[in-house]
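Example 9 (inverse folding). The structure is encoded as follows.
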């Protein structure tokens, strides 16, 4: 807000002009590069109002906690300001797997707040989070950081497996590519379930064939495949480990 000049050319800034006001005659030293202006005097400094009323940027920003749909952000107040009436927080999408356009989000909080939880975010997405101090309608420069929300439950459900051939206990299948608006697809889990005994399965109880046999469960994981491995058809029941 204020520029203070003393000792001919020493300059520093302050939010307040100072406690003691001297007469203009106390600042009698001409500025080295412009003798028409004064640059302080003996035990005195010239004070110039910069007429800048917008606050400076917050000193720091930190991401405290992240979930699928929320980000908690923390910041410290600006060093330079005349008055801070609040803070403006923005979340702009950088990268997402959503199949629709995500609009920028904004939140306004009071001037006595230095942390906030940002809701309604998209899972598995990267955001640019920025915080700026405000002086009523004036917005100061912001400080920003990147944050990623946690990958969410795949949505929509994957397409049905296509059965290509059947040979005794073996089955040749094709696994169509799945999409997920809540993040990347990192693995395809192939589950065999004996529907004669079971109409579905409990995810927490899933394990390999040995585990299912020990627990007397009518379903088991027969393979876990990377996305590039589903390009080829897969055989269920060949007694191989995948």
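The amino acid assigned to each position is listed next.
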């Amino acid at each position: 807000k204020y520029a203070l000049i003393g000792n001919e050319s020493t300059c520093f800034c302050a939010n307040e002009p100072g406690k003691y006001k001297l007469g203009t005659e106390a600042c009698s030293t001409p500025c080295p590069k412009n003798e028409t202006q004064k640059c302080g005097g003996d035990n005195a400094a010239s004070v110039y109002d910069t007429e800048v009323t917008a606050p400076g940027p917050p000193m720091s920003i930190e991401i405290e906690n992240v979930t699928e749909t929320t980000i908690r952000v923390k910041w410290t107040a600006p060093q330079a300001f005349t008055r801070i009436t609040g803070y403006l927080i923005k979340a702009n999408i950088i990268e997402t797997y959503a199949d629709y356009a995500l609009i920028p989000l904004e939140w306004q909080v009071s001037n006595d707040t230095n942390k906030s939880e940002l809701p309604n975010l998209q899972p598995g997405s990267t955001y640019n989070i920025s915080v700026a101090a405000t002086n009523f309608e004036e917005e100061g420069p912001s400080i920003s950081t990147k944050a990623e929300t946690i990958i969410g439950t795949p949505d929509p459900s994957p397409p049905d497996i296509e059965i290509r051939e059947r040979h005794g206990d073996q089955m040749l299948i094709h696994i169509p590519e799945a999409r997920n608006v809540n993040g990347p697809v990192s693995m395809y889990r192939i589950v065999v379930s004996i529907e004669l005994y079971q109409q579905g399965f409990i995810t927490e109880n899933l394990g390999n064939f040995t585990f299912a046999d020990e627990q007397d469960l009518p379903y088991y994981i027969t393979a876990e495949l990377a996305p590039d491995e589903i390009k080829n058809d897969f055989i269920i029941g060949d007694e191989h480990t995948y």
